[in-house]
Amino acid sequence: MTRLHRPVEAAPPPASPASSLNAARRARELAEVAGGTAVDVLVVGLGATGAGVALDAASRGLSVAAIDAHDIAFGTSRWSSKLIHGGLRYLASGQLGIAYESAVERGVLMERTAPHLVRALPFVLPLTPQVPASAVGLARAGIWAGDVLRMSARTHRAALPRPRRLTAVEALRLAPALRSYGLRGGLLSWDGQLADDARLVTAIARTAAAYGARVLTRCRALALSGDGAQVRDELTGTEFFLRARAVVNAAGVWAGGLAEGVRLRPSRGTHLVLRAESLGGLAIGLHLPVPGSSGRFALVLPQEDGRIYVGLTDEPVEGPVPDVPEPSEAEIGFLLDLLDSALDVPVRRTDVAGAYAGLRPLLYGAEGSTADLSRRHAVLTAENGVVTVVGGKLTTYRRMAEDALDAALASRGVEAGPCRTARLPLVGAGPAADLARLAAPANLVHRYGTEARDVMALAAEDPSLLEPVAPGSATTGAELAWAVRHEGALDEGDLLDRRTRVGLVAADREAALPAARRAIGRAELRL
Ligand SMILES: Cc1cc2nc3c(=O)[nH]c(=O)nc-3n(C[C@H](O)[C@H](O)[C@H](O)COP(=O)(O)OP(=O)(O)OC[C@H]3O[C@@H](n4cnc5c(N)ncnc54)[C@H](O)[C@@H]3O)c2cc1C
């Protein structure tokens, strides 16, 4: 896989412990704001968007409190396809501006702010009998246009190689699981893939903390006003008013519950989790044509930890928005049928190790019409000055944060310098050459960057921390200990479902619970 080459251009943020989040820091900073200390900016929601707003504001020199009812990356930000898109699908629908913005932000993440977390993933689009000859030219033109976008966004070819047409033999060599019967070749293209979406959000939140933001999990906003929010500490039940000069509502699909006039209806997107063996050890991404639809593709996404995600569905969700959406059996069946339509390897229901679902917001407009915000984000300013930002994607979180913060500062007359985040490396970022030289396993470097050494160093205290947390798992006890000391993990769920992704497979989660409990117990002893 190709990694970046452009050097990181700004000085790294202040080193740990300024970026360290833990129970002691939470208690101290919560006491400050609950005791009446006002902040310049209050951000509600610690998904990619809210964490991005917190970083943007803190790095402009403003005082910040960023709260989440649950945890960092509790919401949609951990249920994505984990891609940093170049905007190809927006090109297909003629939305040039959005496509360009995505391509630029992909380059920022890959080459400057998070090179450790984003790698180039090759994709094969197999030219199966489901892809009519008439569609091949279009798909090919789209992939080439994507490369032109990469160039116009000034992302180096070394970071994202050139696309090309493959013969059937080449396509099968790259993806032996493909059905050979009727295969006419393939199209090879490249896009950005995150080591993990929740880890991106954790890195953004910790970088914000390094610039002084108070990052407070388990704090629910009950009601927002122009000058703050009524907040409940979910650990104690205590309520208080958090005073702020400007307020940004970044509560994702839950944002409508906090802002007058923002009406959202979610739509569910589901992924399967398979083990690599189920697809013959597939190491390359696939764009699989969805039978019966022209120009719609599903994604097969190999991960570094030996799992493969297969997505994506689009199902309307009625009723109250759940905290954790559940995939339906119908969606799982749809994705299995899709694999069956393109692969020679049989994948059965028993091969499905796990499944997860995330919610995209649809925004109700005037007269009941809805707008899909999964492409473009919306920034809405209420009469009381509260700014709500919804929609968009992980890839463009930085631009969304900038737009939302600018609107919030303008609406409340708060002065601050210009946005700096396009040049601020996230915690763990470093030049490719430095990352390659680190004395730590590559999979750890891809998740922790320059901090991988520090994670490993924890094992000097207790060598058993180098053991996997569950049989066959790539995650070690050292990562859990690190998450408790520096990444704000407060309980087993934070450890297994967000700082690491062991929990995406229920059986692995069950096996890892004792290690997670030990990590939390050890931290309590240290306090
Ligand atoms: C299935 C799917 C796949 C996707 N794949 C990709 C992809 O591959 N690449 C990409 O770029 N984008 C992708 N996206 C889009 C991307 O995931 C989202 O746009 C993004 O994660 C939204 O982040 P957010 O911070 O706005 O919302 P969220 O991540 O949902 O964060 C909102 C937070 O607000 C908190 N909250 C809610 N109510 C309150 C309250 N009252 N008080 C305090 N906190 C509260 C929640 O706990 C939550 O943590 C995908 C989306 C879906 C649905």
Please describe what this structure looks like.
This protein has about 525 residues and is of the alpha+beta class. The protein is about 35% helix and about 20% strand. The protein has 15 helices and 19 strands. The strands form two sheets. Strands 3, 4, 5, 6, 11, 12, 13, 14, 15, 16 and 17 form an eleven-stranded mixed β-sheet that branches. Strands 1, 2, 7, 8, 9, 10, 18 and 19 form an eight-stranded mixed β-sheet that branches. It starts with about 20 loop residues before the first helix and ends with a helix. Residues about 1-15 have low confidence and may be disordered. The site of flavin-adenine dinucleotide has 38 residues, from helix 2, strand 8 and strand 16.
**Percent of residues in helices:** 25-40%
* Average pLDDT figure: 92
Coarse shape? globular
List the uncertain runs: 1-15
Roughly what fraction of the amino acids lie in strands?
Answer: 15-25%
Rg (CA only): 22 Å
- Biggest sheet character: 11 strands, mixed
Summing up helix and strand content along with how strands pair, one would put the structural category as alpha+beta
Count of helical segments? 15
Q: Give the names of the bound compounds.
A: flavin-adenine dinucleotide
The total of beta strands comes to 19
End-to-end Cα distance, whole Å, is 42 Å
